[in-house]
C-alpha cells in the first residue's frame, strides 16, 4: 500500500494546486483566460470516462461520456455567451465528483481521487469567479 501525499492529504493538496494554478489567470488576457478554463473544464470532465473504460462497463461508459459531453457543451456555450459561467461549471463538476463519493457510481477510484478533484474544482471555480470579477 502506497503512502504518497495525495493519499494522506488530498484536500490540502487540491488547495495547493488551486493556489498555484488559478492565479495564473490574472496574467492571461481575459479571452485567453476564459478559453483555457473552458478547455480544462472539458478535459477534467472526461477523466471519469477513463475510469469507466478501464472497468469495461458499458452502462458507466455511456453515463460518464454523456456527463463529460454535457460539461464540454456547457463550457462551449458559456464561452460563447457569458464566460463567467465557466466558473460555475467548475463548481458543478466538484459536485459531480462528490456524487461519486456517495456511490453514484460503483467504479473503482483511488481513495484520494474524489476528494482531491472535488476540492480542486470547487476552489478553482470560486477562484476563477473572483479573478474574473476583479479583472
Q: What's the short version?
A:
This protein has helices at residues 5-8, 10-21, 30-45, 47-55, 58-81, 85-101, 113-134.
SSE topology:
Layout: H1 5-8, H2 10-21, H3 30-45, H4 47-55, H5 58-81, H6 85-101, H7 113-134
Explain this structure to me?
The structure is a single chain. This protein is an all-alpha fold. 77% of the residues lie in helices and 0% in strands. The protein has helices spanning 5-8, 10-21, 30-45, 47-55, 58-81, 85-101, 113-134. Helix 2 (10-21) packs parallel to helix 7, helix 3 packs antiparallel against helix 5 and helix 3 packs parallel to helix 6. The chain starts with a helix and ends with a helix. The mean pLDDT is 92.
Residue-averaged pLDDT: 92
The biggest beta sheet, please?
Answer: none
What distance lies between the first and last C-alpha atoms, to the nearest angstrom?
Answer: 45 Å
Cα gyration radius (Å): 15 Å
What is the tally of helical segments?
7
- By secondary-structure content and strand pairing, the structural class works out as mainly alpha
Element pattern in H and E: HHHHHHH
Low-confidence blocks of residues = none
Share in helix: over 70%
| Number of extended strands | 0
Molecular shape: globular
Strand fraction equals under 5%
Amino acid at each position: 500500500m502506497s503512502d504518497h501525499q495525495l493519499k494522506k492529504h488530498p484536500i490540502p493538496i487540491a488547495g495547493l494546486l488551486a493556489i498555484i494554478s488559478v492565479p495564473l489567470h490574472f496574467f492571461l488576457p481575459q479571452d485567453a483566460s476564459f478559453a483555457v478554463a473552458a478547455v480544462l473544464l472539458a478535459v477534467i470532465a472526461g477523466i471519469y470516462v477513463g475510469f469507466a473504460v478501464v472497468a469495461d462497463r458499458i452502462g458507466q461508459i455511456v453515463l460518464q461520456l454523456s456527463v463529460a459531453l454535457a460539461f464540454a457543451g456547457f463550457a462551449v456555450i458559456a464561452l460563447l455567451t457569458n464566460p463567467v459561467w465557466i466558473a460555475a461549471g467548475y463548481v458543478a463538476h466538484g459536485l459531480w465528483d462528490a456524487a461519486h463519493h456517495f456511490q453514484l457510481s460503483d467504479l473503482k477510484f483511488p481513495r484520494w481521487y474524489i476528494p482531491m478533484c472535488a476540492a480542486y474544482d470547487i476552489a478553482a471555480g470560486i477562484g476563477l469567479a473572483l479573478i474574473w470579477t476583479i479583472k
